[in-house]
Write a structure and sequence with these properties.
seven-stranded mixed β-sheet; binds pyridoxal-5'-phosphate; five-stranded mixed β-sheet; Aspartate Aminotransferase, domain 1; alpha/beta
């Protein structure tokens, strides 16, 4: 054999399959396949991004100090005790997930997640040569007992999507119970990518847990409610020990200057986030009620998407997805999540959400 040979296992890592962005024969598509923001981006964030045009020859602030201050300030105003020193910013929360995995797991170690958790946990674990372990869910919701049952002395990390990529969530008391039953050597990483959309009283993003323990990290993203998916910006809040580890591992300039500037303006524009939450609540409720009218089952959602269920035969999810694509509407298949009879529909603008229902009507008709 000749030529370079990658580390054992690298070629066994499945490729991440992003949501579709093209439909044959359609110049303009309705893209509801990646849970992007229905309302686009805050005007203030766009202005901050444009204002940086003349500074592109400068390196960014490698510590993202102003952005971390802005994040901490906004959450403090919300009543949470959050210190900028305990925040690490990344190129999307994907990077934070990779860094956590690389920092705490390696060959022989196990990375635990629930069956329909974000696929990047598994891919990141495989990427560092660790073993991903999936715990079954209950009603498409992470099951604390099933997770705890799979903790071994090799477990290094537990990733919990809360909310889950299925649209469900674990209430605060279950989150607290999961943490309190984990051994101290296990890092609990709570991925709260959809936290801004959740309006339930018994939901907690994990912020308060982080403040009280040295093995809990919460990750957040600017890709969803803040509408900055294209800039790649995420962050985590963690105890000093974890923050120190991540800062050693990350690239010295991992967050671009435009991302930092837009991120500061975006997080300070909470009025935009409130509009996004309100729009989402209205149209998610409407979509769910229309699905009921059409006799389509769905997983009740607290997020900006709804997973609709279809039968195994004939009117399948794959056929529904194909049919919608014929109308230029792109939604997500859930094959990578082991839910092949579901289609995941992001809440879009009013007209986009109506178009989904019209398309489903003709599909089922
Ligand atoms: C979208 C999403 C992310 C965020 O990814 P970014 O890298 O920040 O764009 C993380 N976790 C979950 C569950 C998501 O759905």
């Amino acid at each position: 054999m000749s030529g370079p040979i990658p580390r054992a296992g690298v070629l066994e890592i499945p490729m991440y399959v992003p949501g579709r962005s093209r439909a044959e024969g359609h110049e303009h598509v309705v893209k509801l396949s990646s849970n992007e923001s229905a309302l686009g981006t805050s005007e203030k964030a766009m202005a901050a991004y444009r204002a940086l045009e003349g500074e592109l020859h400068r390196y960014p602030d490698g510590s993202a100090a102003d952005l971390r201050e802005a994040i901490a300030g906004v959450h403090r105003a919300d009543g949470d005790a959050l210190d900028a020193e305990n925040i690490v910013c990344g190129e999307g929360s994907d990077e934070i997930i990779h860094l956590l995995t690389a920092a705490y797991a390696g060959p022989g170690d196990e990375v635990l997640h629930s069956a329909h958790g974000f696929v990047m946990y598994k891919l990141s674990a495989l990427g560092v040569g660790a073993t991903p372990v999936a715990a079954p869910e209950r009603e498409w919701t992470p099951d604390v007992d099933a997770l705890l049952k799979r903790v071994t002395e090799r477990t290094r990390l537990v990733f919990l999507s809360n909310p889950n990529p299925t649209g469900t969530y674990l209430p605060r008391r279950e989150l607290v119970r999961l943490h309190s039953c984990l051994p101290a050597y296990v890092v609990l990483a709570i991925d709260a990518a959809y936290a801004e959309y959740v309006t339930r009283d018994d939901y907690a993003s994990g912020l308060e847990l982080v403040g009280a323990a040295d093995n809990v990290v919460m990750t957040r993203t600017f890709s969803k409610a803040y509408g900055l998916a294209g800039l790649r910006l995420g962050w985590c809040y963690g105890p000093a020990g974890v923050v120190d580890v991540l800062n050693r591992l990350r690239g010295p300039f991992n967050v671009t200057a435009p991302a930092q500037a837009a991120g500061i303006a975006a997080i300070e524009d909470q009025a935009f986030v409130a509009r996004a939450r309100q729009h989402n609540e209205t149209w998610r409720n409407w979509l769910e009620s229309e699905l009921r009218r059409l006799g389509v089952t769905y997983i009740p959602s607290v997020t900006n998407f709804v997973c609709a269920g279809f039968p195994d035969k004939e009117k399948t999810a794959a056929a529904a997805i194909e049919h919608m694509m014929g109308h230029g509407i792109l939604v997500r298949d859930m094959n990578a999540y082991g839910l092949p009879n579901h289609a995941r529909i992001t809440i879009g603008l009013a007209e986009e959400t109506r178009a989904v229902v019209r398309s489903l009507e003709t599909f089922l008709g």
